[in-house]
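Weekly puzzle thread! Below is a chain. First person to post its structure in token form gets bragging rights.
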Amino acid sequence: MPIVDVSPKVSLSYETFGDPGDPPVLLVMGFGAQMLAWDEDFCRELADHGRYVIRYDNRDCGLSTQFDDHPVDVGEFIAAVSSGDMAAALAMVPYRLGDMADDGLGLLTALGVERAHVVGASMGGMIAQTMALSSPQRVLTLTSMMSSTGESAYGRPSPEAQAALFSPRPADRAGYIATAERGLIWSSRRYGDPAVLRELAADSYDRAYCPAGTGRQLGAMILSGSRADALRELRVPTLVIHGLDDTLIDPSGGRRTAELVPGAELLLIPDMGHDRPRELWPTLIDALVKHTG
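Winning reply:
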């Protein structure tokens, strides 16, 4: 997979599918997840529907630039935020969602893409929203999937999902793969498959094991704050997708996003959690093709 410089400090690993002459669709992945989480078959199916699909690793993930000279202790960061010591919290984290949005826009520039349809999942939805807010002239459409607005009252995880997300995972390959099954807590109750979770964990571990980046990404999300006021002014055509089984980002996050963005379409999907099970790909791809048509 090629790597390209998108700024003086950041290089991104990316992959494309389909004809560069087709409408470009930029896929933005979520917290701690490599581009592999946008399944290759999913990308190819979307490309087969006449889209030029681009997936990439966010900074501090996969084969993209790591900010290891800024270590973040998640426990210390959460303690600082919880105690209201925002000065300490701000000093710990070297970037915000706006910087991650600039990475995605920089990738489009490097690929010669002036405007694109932007699709973000989870934290990727937050990044995609930020791209549309900061550079609406470059975003043909926005799709915010299983995401939220940065308001603490919406999209809250269940206690069980939050505990699973922040529980340390073993550093050895076998242990790392085994604990991937924690993701069943927020997966589709009907279609969640531990074998799929283990396979993705194995592929991700073998490609690039970089757990330190998650602390910085978490900090970027928390410290970027609410986008509510800005979303009320957004004029980019917007589709909001959320699974009704999602316990990691409650569906209220999607409902709130669609409520704020003028003219946004809301698609709530039964039997979908904080995942994209293969059984629901036809629903997701049909919605994306329609929205990006």
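Puzzle host: Confirmed. Bonus trivia for everyone else. The radius of gyration is 18 Å.
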